[in-house]
Amino acid sequence: MEGSVIWLDLLQPSAQDMEVLVEEFGLHPLAVEDAVQQHERPKLDRYQDHGFLTVYAVSLDPATGRLTTSELAAFITPRALITVRK
């Protein structure tokens, strides 16, 4: 639908999944590589047609008192928010 924005939330996408997104949304190859690699540093990169964000979420296990982290990458385009959970 014209004028709509979509949110795609991907959990451990395959290389083939990412190829489809590159074709459909014109994502930069370096950003796509960073989105699937583990242990990227937190950052915000700007590309011509989209932004790319890498962040970490932290959660506390109340029973053990341990902190755990999870890595999240996001592509921000005029048409979509695409999150990649590793």
Question: Would you mind describing this structure in some detail?
Answer:
The relative contact order is 0.26. The protein has 86 residues and is of the alpha+beta class. The radius of gyration is 14 Å and the shape is elongated. The longest helix is centred in the first third of the chain and has 11 residues, at 15-25. The model has no long low-confidence stretch (mean pLDDT 93). Strands 1-5-4-3-2 form a 5-stranded mixed β-sheet, covered by helices on one side. The protein has helices at residues 15-25, 29-36; strands at 6-11, 43-46, 51-61, 66-76, 80-85. It contains 2 helices and 5 strands, in the order βααββββ.
Unreliable residue stretches? none
The radius of gyration is 14 Å
Percentage of residues in DSSP E strands: 35-45%
Query: Which bin fits the share of residues in helices?
Result: 10-25%
Shape: elongated
Order of helices and strands: EHHEEEE
Q: Major sheet: size, sense and barrel closure?
A: 5 strands, mixed
For the record, give the distance between the C-alpha atoms at the N and C termini, rounded to a whole number: 29 Å
The number of helical runs is 2
Question: What assembly state would you assign to the polypeptide chains in this entry?
Answer: single chain
What's the average pLDDT? 93
* Total beta strands: 5
Give me the side-by-side strand order of the main sheet. Answer: 1-5-4-3-2
Secondary-structure-based class equals alpha+beta
